[in-house]
């Protein structure tokens, strides 16, 4: 393949700073913020219970707080972060994609998906993305800015509120799983992503009390950040968007490969699995006549096998959800089957991801792009 590589953007452009929110603060910082408002520190626990137990984020409704302080509390620590632009449903209501507008007009997407025994939220970590993968709608739109810790966390609160209000038929309780596979490269916004994850796993009443094992962080291969994640001591699931087993092709379709090559990325992923005892997911978007040949399946098996026992890795094949007007499209079913059979013959654990949401601009960035074009 030949083509002109788009520039990679690792630093988000400077834009208006998001307003500070309760979700930007850890447990101790919340108590300090409350003290600055002239309230006793124990009030922070009361507020936490409103937010994390009752899923309330409007300070006007915190009726166990002094009435005169609720307005100031709302202005200082509970500004409105997400404004719903549009919402689309498919799969008999089991998949709900929401487009949100932020304080500065930036757009982000989140997708809530109900399965028979769980409810999963796919969330965004950036408005746009700077990784410039040519088959991805978000990557082609470029990076607008990093999301704040609170803007990431607010997507989870909104999803739990949607479940509670019956937006997703059949979904009950709270979210079971969170996947950082929406807009943006999570590892390029590492501090905010990890801050939000700590809120997700913090036991109640100071957090959502989720299991770290039910949170997946994806990356296209920022090797230093994978190493940093390895040191965090959290049993998160790491998903590496590899998409090609050879440097020649991956340089073209995943431009970050020009900085960190396939072997470096896979080595970092293997070390993560070795240290955390958590199986790594290798994400592989199947693109017709680009990366779906049997010989590439053979090469992928060899690349993974060099790192040791198969227990460390699982390959997740993804039928490409094509962007309208793009030359990048999904593989033929026969080529998918041949690719899977090749990996299985080599003993590589592999599954084909269930695709959802094609009729609602389901691929990452498509809904934001279509709404921007309409505007």
UniProtKB/TrEMBL annotation:
One of its GO terms (cellular component) is cytoplasm. Reaction proceeds by a ping-pong mechanism involving intermediate methylation of a conserved cysteine residue. Gene3D superfamilies: 1.10.150.530, Aldolase class I. It comes from Tessaracoccus defluvii. Keywords: 4Fe-4S, Cytoplasm, Disulfide bond, Iron, Iron-sulfur, Metal-binding, Methyltransferase, rRNA processing, S-adenosyl-L-methionine, Transferase, tRNA processing. HAMAP family: RNA_methyltr_RlmN (MF_01849). The keyword Methyltransferase applies. Residues 115-359 form the Radical SAM core domain. The gene is rlmN. It is found in: Cytoplasm. [4Fe-4S] cluster binds at residues 129, 133, 136. Specifically methylates position 2 of adenine 2503 in 23S rRNA and position 2 of adenine 37 in tRNAs. This is Probable dual-specificity RNA methyltransferase RlmN. Binds 1 [4Fe-4S] cluster. The cluster is coordinated with 3 cysteines and an exchangeable S-adenosyl-L-methionine. GO terms for molecular function: 4 iron, 4 sulfur cluster binding; metal ion binding; rRNA (adenine(2503)-C2-)-methyltransferase activity; rRNA binding; tRNA (adenine(37)-C2)-methyltransferase activity; tRNA binding. InterPro entries: Aldolase_TIM (IPR013785), Methyltransferase_A (IPR040072), RNA_MTrfase_RlmN (IPR027492), rRNA_lsu_MTrfase_RlmN/Cfr (IPR004383), rSAM (IPR007197), rSAM_sf (IPR058240). Its cofactor is [4Fe-4S] cluster. Its main location: cytoplasm. The active site is at residues 109, 364. One of its GO terms (biological process) is tRNA methylation. Its EC number is 2.1.1.192. It holds the Pfam family Radical_SAM. It is an enzyme of class 2 (transferase). Belongs to the radical SAM superfamily. RlmN family. It catalyses: adenosine(2503) in 23S rRNA + 2 reduced [2Fe-2S]-[ferredoxin] + 2 S-adenosyl-L-methionine = 2-methyladenosine(2503) in 23S rRNA + 5'-deoxyadenosine + L-methionine + 2 oxidized [2Fe-2S]-[ferredoxin] + S-adenosyl-L-homocysteine; adenosine(37) in tRNA + 2 reduced [2Fe-2S]-[ferredoxin] + 2 S-adenosyl-L-methionine = 2-methyladenosine(37) in tRNA + 5'-deoxyadenosine + L-methionine + 2 oxidized [2Fe-2S]-[ferredoxin] + S-adenosyl-L-homocysteine. S-adenosyl-L-methionine binds at residues 184-185, 218, 241-243, 321.
């Amino acid at each position: 393949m030949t083509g002109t590589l788009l520039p990679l953007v690792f630093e988000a452009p400077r834009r208006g700073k998001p307003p500070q929110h309760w979700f930007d603060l850890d447990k101790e910082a919340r108590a300090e913020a409350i003290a600055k408002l002239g309230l006793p520190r124990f009030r922070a626990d009361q507020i936490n219970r409103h937010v994390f137990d009752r899923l309330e984020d409007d300070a006007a409704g915190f009726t166990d707080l002094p009435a005169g302080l609720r307005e100031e509390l709302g202005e200082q620590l509970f500004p409105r972060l997400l404004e719903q632009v549009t919402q689309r449903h498919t799969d008999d209501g089991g998949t709900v994609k929401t487009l949100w507008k932020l304080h500065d007009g930036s757009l982000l997407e989140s997708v809530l998906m109900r399965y028979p025994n769980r409810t999963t939220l796919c969330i965004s970590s950036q408005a746009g993305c700077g990784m410039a993968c040519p088959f991805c709608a978000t990557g082609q739109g470029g990076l607008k800015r990093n999301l704040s810790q609170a803007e990431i966390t607010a997507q989870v609160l909104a999803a739990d509120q949607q479940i509670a209000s019956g937006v997703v038929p059949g979904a009950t309780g709270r979210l079971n799983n969170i996947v950082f596979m929406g807009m943006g490269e999570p590892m390029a916004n590492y501090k905010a992503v990890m801050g939000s994850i700590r809120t997700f796993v913090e036991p109640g009443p100071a957090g959502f009390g989720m299991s770290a094992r039910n949170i997946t962080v994806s990356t296209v291969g920022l090797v230093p950040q994978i190493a940093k994640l390895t040191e965090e001591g959290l049993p998160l699931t790491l998903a590496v968007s590899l998409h090609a087993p050879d440097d020649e092709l991956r340089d073209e379709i995943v431009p970050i490969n020009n900085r960190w090559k396939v072997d470096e990325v896979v080595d970092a992923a293997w070390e993560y699995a070795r240290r955390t005892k958590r199986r790594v997911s290798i994400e592989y978007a199947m693109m017709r006549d680009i990366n779906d040949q049997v010989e590439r399946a053979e090469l992928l098996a060899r690349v993974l096998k060099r790192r040791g026992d198969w227990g460390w890795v699982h390959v997740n094949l993804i039928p490409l959800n094509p962007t309208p007007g793009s030359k990048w499209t999904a593989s033929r079913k026969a080529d998918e089957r041949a690719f899977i059979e090749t990996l299985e013959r080599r003993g590589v654990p592999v599954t084909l991801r269930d695709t959802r949401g094609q009729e609602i601009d389901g691929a990452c960035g498509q809904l934001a792009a279509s709404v921007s074009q309409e505007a």
